[in-house]
Amino acid sequence: MHAANIAAHPRAALAMVYDIHAPSAGEVGDAHGVKVADSPETVFSSGDVDAVLIATATPTHADYIEAAVAAGKPVLCEKPIDLSLARVNACAEKVADKGVPVQIGFNRRFDPGHRAARDAVVAGEIGELHQVIITSRDPGMPPRAYYEEAGGLFRDMVIHDFDLARFMLGEEPTQVFAVGGRLIDPALMDELDDYDTSMVIVRTASGKQCHINTSRTSTFGYDQRVELLGETGMVQSLNRKPTEVRKFGASAVERAEPYLEFFIERYREAFDAEVDAFVDALENGTPVQASFEDGRRALILAEAAMLSAREGRFVSVDEVK
Amino acid sequence: MHAANIAAHPRAALAMVYDIHAPSAGEVGDAHGVKVADSPETVFSSGDVDAVLIATATPTHADYIEAAVAAGKPVLCEKPIDLSLARVNACAEKVADKGVPVQIGFNRRFDPGHRAARDAVVAGEIGELHQVIITSRDPGMPPRAYYEEAGGLFRDMVIHDFDLARFMLGEEPTQVFAVGGRLIDPALMDELDDYDTSMVIVRTASGKQCHINTSRTSTFGYDQRVELLGETGMVQSLNRKPTEVRKFGASAVERAEPYLEFFIERYREAFDAEVDAFVDALENGTPVQASFEDGRRALILAEAAMLSAREGRFVSVDEVK
Amino acid sequence: MHAANIAAHPRAALAMVYDIHAPSAGEVGDAHGVKVADSPETVFSSGDVDAVLIATATPTHADYIEAAVAAGKPVLCEKPIDLSLARVNACAEKVADKGVPVQIGFNRRFDPGHRAARDAVVAGEIGELHQVIITSRDPGMPPRAYYEEAGGLFRDMVIHDFDLARFMLGEEPTQVFAVGGRLIDPALMDELDDYDTSMVIVRTASGKQCHINTSRTSTFGYDQRVELLGETGMVQSLNRKPTEVRKFGASAVERAEPYLEFFIERYREAFDAEVDAFVDALENGTPVQASFEDGRRALILAEAAMLSAREGRFVSVDEVK
Amino acid sequence: MHAANIAAHPRAALAMVYDIHAPSAGEVGDAHGVKVADSPETVFSSGDVDAVLIATATPTHADYIEAAVAAGKPVLCEKPIDLSLARVNACAEKVADKGVPVQIGFNRRFDPGHRAARDAVVAGEIGELHQVIITSRDPGMPPRAYYEEAGGLFRDMVIHDFDLARFMLGEEPTQVFAVGGRLIDPALMDELDDYDTSMVIVRTASGKQCHINTSRTSTFGYDQRVELLGETGMVQSLNRKPTEVRKFGASAVERAEPYLEFFIERYREAFDAEVDAFVDALENGTPVQASFEDGRRALILAEAAMLSAREGRFVSVDEVK
Predict the structure, then answer these.
(1) Cβ distance of C245 and B113 shorter than 8 Å
(2) CB contact under 8 A, C238 and B244
(3) N or C: which end of chain C has fewer CB within 10 A?
(4) Which residues of chain D have pLDDT under 50?
(5) Which chain A residue has its CA at the smallest distance from B222's CA?
(6) Size of interface B-D (CB pairs under 8 A)
(7) What's the pLDDT tens digit per position in B179-196?
(8) Quick check: D197 and B209 CB within 8 A?
(9) pLDDT averaged over chain C?
(10) Contact B259/A241, CB-based, under 8 Å?
(11) What does the alpha-carbon distance between residue C200 and residue C213 come to, in Å, rounded to a whole number?
(12) Please, which pLDDT band fits residue A258 given cuts at 50, 70 and 90?
């Protein structure tokens, strides 16, 4: 998906591709008529490459970020940076102060709807922000193999919402409370010691409140909503439908098709805007809009949530930093 | 329904009831603890009666209006005044200049939504009004006996929409085009020489355009909508649902319950407001808001529509006046 | 309001009224043409009174419930039963096993929309219930005097939502986490040691999750929503608008009027249904639908929330029982 | 726009471009790295060209269609074929029976929403179709020069809706009634003997009814809606918004951004689907989905509407064929 996005993007060009599974790389390279690198190093050292997009398995992210930054190549890396906060902190030290932009793939910040909602707050349209409610439900349970690598619900899925929470709140969360549930597939979740359903409350130093509810299954499409309550009004960024068709009959009215199924469809514009923002940062030397530090902060919140879910208490972000 | 409405209305009291079918009158009288008159004359001559509401069979309306006005009793009469324009014109002569208020039961003018839509136009919220679109679909076909008395689709059902069109347009229609269809029960409509489906276009002297579409059947509830397009915006008054419940599942999202079924539920507030306005007129001597002349004008438009549907041409309102 | 509701209700009649402020009682008595009692005891001992509705100041509720039950009069009492759980428990002992119905005024259970949402769950329309999200925001801050009597945000306002949570969950919450905020009027809230904004998470023994967000101010009308997520679908009961008018212009489309302002308008049908259900219980000897125990349970949850907000931890309901 | 669409389309490639204004062609050719033809003939005779898309000035359409077909090149041509029905009929004779596909650019048929609405009818979801209501309002008045070439409201703008009407009705209209208005810029419309606002009623042989309302100005975005009423239900294809953001404040709730501004945004997917369908026809030899005959039929309806608006009568389609 990322290769196709870059190839089709008006401000970017696909230079080469690499994949640990060589046939996959070959297919993508052929499809877009670009060179297939035989190793990551080939990519990092190539003069034809202005920047790299890392969408490999999570355990490789930090290594590749370090290698790319060492080679002076700006990076757009999929979240999470790593499942280990210690590894992320070590990586942070290596990439800091190198002047090489690193952007993390928190696509939801770039969604035109979510962005417009945040813009309305910044523009003062709802006065001081009081409450943020984020709904984040995937259309269905991923295959078992996925869970085994993903690092658990909070670091895999809710991490997106923690980033979105920080983006919407406009200030740093200081405390996290989380409840994890095993409601969809209790046996599997017990076995993996993971959750399929969760509720979170986050609070900032100034007292702003944020709630996140998450589920691994939403039969009616990808459920991705943000609600912002302020002293003078409210803004919502709601789900998107494939068309604006409405049906009316004896049993129901105003029936619409299920929501756009998953992130590729739902956040299509967001992926383009993400690349756009990355190109902006490279061309103008402006800061990236979802930085390495944003990636680190979201992981800290996920860690805090895991601790909170385990211990049943409001966890201070400082405890896990 | 009307007796119960008046009995429950905070500004009106039910004094007595009359019905040609004595047992019905008896039942209603008992239910509300009021006297049952043995003839219409008893009502018109009673000192206990300040005003009369006429909801009898259509052919009796004009006679009763004349009798009530002669007795100095203000009248709130159900539409239509009569199926014959000649009879209406004769009645008009008798009730004119008597100083006795006569209000016609065009309840839709009093619906809070339709009223707010019209108010927005009057307040200049959409600039000069250009187009009015009225959708008016009954939930189902009435029994055969009803058709035989009703005077045809245009005089029975669309007459309400003609009144609403005049109310919304804020000026007098000068030309009418109508198409009648036999789509729901062609055999019955052929036999009765009537229509179950229609489309109308009305134009005013200043060029404003109004479309009315009508059907005797709408399986999803009573379909009652008004759309007003102006030079700077648009206002819609849409259908009403019993609750704001929405359902989401694998086959559809945002499903709502069918719309309020029929006029008693849909226009409940309108019936109250209609009585309110009538009491206002009586107490303050202000003009009624749906006058005898409004009733006559709506009938003229219905007659023009019938002529148009027959002859397939734009009929001037002057032809049938 | 309650006197007028009962007077207008088709299945109830107003027999007499009492108010500690005699002129108020006089006014209401005059308005409805009923006797004004000179003391609560007169009401409880009157042969004309089949049942009593208690809508007095909170500290009098428990005493009056006890007196009414002792006199064999069924009671419909406004929430909360008392601000002290000890007092409620004492009252519970006195009214238990007397066979005299006591219904608590949790009107939201009777709202047609909320009720239809719950019915959909019971009917299996969304499979097993996983998450409940309740939004509950009052249109504006009450006067200072109100706060001083109200017992704090959780016992005054969120108690309604705790009852609704129990109603929607269909099983007993076992743990409560709450955050209180001072965002609207921090100075006043500091002074009163109260909150104007809150977020709550509740969990049941089977792992169901419920979130409640509350604010003392919602500039766009009374914000009262319930969302129920199940394994196969979702149901929402959304806010109600005065009309279905929508406005469209150069700066925005589909604009609607602010939501119904407050509980008297928003829950009008609910108040009627509440009285209806009470009459049902009296006439048929069936259990009341919002019982004394429901009132006690909601207070326990409010107490647990207060403790949680103070101590920043997931509080077990057993701790405060 | 068309060149960029084809260049970006996964199933098409831009081979060369021609424009009577050479610098424009040069720019587009450079942008896409393709050859710029020095004459239309170069295009028609080129072995590199599998098919041509004609988006030149209307008076050239018929000539180019004839030339392309003579050269055996399939054609996708913008509407209208020509403003003169005689010229269209002459062209029809030349291109008939040549086995060279000619598709007309009626993009609305390919809109996913409109298409899904039609599909629902075909699938029997609303039973027998009774009424079609098409709303078609451009966001603003075009420049004066545009009007002078456009051939009048009915042949320029409503022609799209006539095609959509035929597509939705699923059978041939037999009669047309139209009213033209001069409400937005009466002076200009008088001078040009044109209309800026119209209402149309179309009827088919089986009695189906279709209403089209049109305006040259809709301040709230491009207003493009279709409503289909059938014996058992209704389907609507409604306007599209840039995002699903909703705003709530003291003066209004559920405010959304204005609708997508104009055809390039609103019908973006439709343009892609149109090219897709054209490629399908070429690759599989199946009939095109908006044929030359469809273009001719829409023009006949536009002519009938012009005659109707002039003479104030229901015009039979046979009169202008």
Answers:
(1) yes
(2) yes
(3) N
(4) none
(5) A250
(6) 111
(7) 999 999 999 999 999 999
(8) yes
(9) 94
(10) no
(11) 6
(12) very high
Q: B29: which 2 tokens?
A: 């009288």
Contacts of C63 (CB under 8 A, 6+ apart): none
Q: Looking at chain C, how many residues does it have?
A: 321
Whether A60 contacts chain C with CB within 8 A: no
The domain spans of chain C are 2-107, 108-266+293-320
With respect to CATH, is domain B108-262+292-320 assigned 3.40.50.300?
Answer: no
Contact list in D for residue B209 (CB cut-off 8 A) is: 179, 181, 197-199, 213
Q: What is the largest CA-CA distance in chain B?
A: 65
The four Cα atoms A82, A83, A85, A90 give a dihedral, to 10 degrees, of: -30
Per-chain mean pLDDT for chain A: 94
The whole-angstrom separation of Cα B101 and Cα B76 is: 8
CATH number of C2-107: 3.40.50.720
User: Helix C268-284 vs helix C112-122: angle between axes, to the nearest 10 degrees?
Assistant: 60
Amino acid, res. B46? S
D119-142: buried (b, 16+ CB within 10 Å) or exposed (e) per residue?
A: ebbeeebbeebbbbbbbbbbbebe
Question: Are residues C131 and A211, on separate chains, in Cβ contact within 8 Å?
Answer: no
Looking at B12-143, list the stretches that DSSP marks H as alpha helix, in order from N- to C-terminal side: 22-32, 40-45, 58-70, 85-95, 112-122
Contact D179 B183 (CB under 8 A): no
3-state secondary structure of A50: coil
Q: Which residues pair with D181 in a beta bridge?
A: D197
Asked if residues D194 and D153 have their Cβ atoms less than 8 Å apart, the reply is yes
Q: Evaluate the CA torsion angle B282, B287, B289, B292 in order and state its sign.
A: positive
Residue B112 near chain C (CB below 8 Å):
yes
D112 and A243: CB-CB below 8 Å? yes
Q: How distant is the alpha carbon of residue C75 from its chain centre?
A: 16
Decide: helix, strand or coil at residue D259.
Answer: coil
Q: How many angstroms separate the CA atoms of B14 and B34, rounded?
A: 7
Residues 237-256 of C with CB under 8 A from D: 239, 241, 247-256
Q: Which of B200, B216, B219 to mutate to test the interface with D (most CBs of D within 10 A)?
A: B219
- State whether residue C1 is helix, strand or coil: coil
Highest mean pLDDT among A24-28, B134-138, C286-290: B134-138
Chain D residues whose CB is inside 8 A of the B203 CB are 179, 181
CATH 3.40.50.700 fits A109-262+292-320, yes or no: no
Look at C125 and B247 and tell me if their CB atoms are within 8 Å.
yes
Q: For the domain made up of C108-266+293-320, give the CATH fold.
A: Dihydrodipicolinate Reductase; domain 2 (3.30.360)
User: Are C236 and B243 an interchain contact pair (Cβ–Cβ within 8 Å)?
Assistant: no
For A45-86, the pLDDT digits (tens) are 999 999 999 999 999 999 999 999 999 999 999 999 999 999
Cα(B8)–Cα(B13) distance, integer angstroms: 8
A124 Cβ under 8 Å from any chain D Cβ = no
* Fold topology of D2-106: Rossmann fold (3.40.50)
φ/ψ of residue D211, rounded to 5: -115, 135
Backbone angles phi, psi at B171, to 5 degrees: -155, 165
pLDDT value of residue A109: 95
Checking if the pLDDT of C4 tops 90, the result is: no
Q: Computed from CA positions of residues C84, C89, C91, C95, in that sequence, does the dihedral angle turn out positive or negative?
A: positive
Q: Which residues of B touch D213 (CB under 8 A)?
A: 131, 133, 209, 211, 229
Q: What's the complex ipTM? A: 0.94
Instruction: Enumerate the residues of chain A whose CB falls inside 8 A of the CB of residue D113.
Output: 243-245
Chain D CB contacts of C220 under 8 Å are: 248-250, 252-253
Decide if pLDDT at C214 tops 90.
Answer: yes
Bridge-based pairing of strands A209-215 and A129-137 is: parallel
Is domain D108-261+292-319 classified as CATH 2.60.40.1120?
no
CA angle (B227 as vertex; B221, B233 as ends), nearest 5 = 145
